Amino acid sequence: DADVTQTPRNRITKTGKRIMLECSQTKGHDRMYWYRQDPGLGLRLIYYSFDVKDINKGEISDGYSVSRQAQAKFSLSLESAIPNQTALYFCATSDKARLEDTQYFGPGTRLTVL
Amino acid sequence: GQSLEQPSEVTAVEGAIVQINCTYQTSGFYGLSWYQQHDGGAPTFLSYNGLDGLEETGRFSSFLSRSDSYGYLLLQELQMKDSASYFCASDSGNTPLVFGKGTRLSVIA
Questions:
Q1: Are A103 and B43 an interchain contact pair (Cβ–Cβ within 8 Å)?
Q2: Rounded Cα distance, A93 and A33, in Å
Q3: Which among B31, B87, B96 has CB closest to A42?
Q4: How far apart are CA A81 and CA B77, in angstroms?
Q5: Residue in B97, B98, B101, B103 to test binding to A, most A beta-carbons within 10 Å
Q6: Dihedral, CA atoms, B72, B77, B83, B87, nearest 10 degrees?
Q7: Which of A6, A33, A29, A2 is nearest to A111 (CA)?
Q8: pLDDT digit string (tens) for A54-70?
Q9: Which of A59, A77, A58, A81 is nearest to A67 (CA)?
Q10: What is the pLDDT of residues B16-75, one digit of tens each?
Q11: Residue B31 touches chain A, beta carbons under 8 Å
């Protein structure tokens, strides 16, 4: 079984709709992250959480919100989706006990906003 | 702020050696990581340099020079399956990794 899972894997929606992307992990890591990836722009951080009570904005948080329901679950919401939020979204986890802070990524969610 | 620069594309021949460079401007720098991402897949961790010098893992090696704010990933005996995007990422301790925009490596026969 995968250590980091994301649901859904693909989603097509319309402008103005509310969308939730979910991430679950079985690695027991405290740190969780949401990234979006667009061609040529690499991985851009949306939000991150270093433990259940900690939520921080990343580089591109406008238009997004998150919820850390438990150590293992971190959800990303788009309250009112717009076409330029069409992208590939990745959840990742890391273990703060490790010096190198290696990140483990989920398989990604491909979101299309029409 | 923090930023990393790496070439957008590199092409190399199967069996050859290729070096992907990464320069960084990062405050409170701890170390440099490298990740590989195949088309349609998720990024996966390759290597980490916390100290200056070379780290070797099989056909892949990674190098760091803190004084030059520079690192590279070296891939030897290139195989077609090495065609992927490669990202360097800087670690500044208690803040998330900052990723470069990635280098797309194409291995040709």
A1: yes
A2: 6
A3: B87
A4: 45
A5: B97
A6: -20
A7: A6
A8: 999 999 999 999 999 99
A9: A77
A10: 999 999 999 988 888 999 999 999 999 999 999 999 999 998 999 999 999 999 999 999
A11: yes
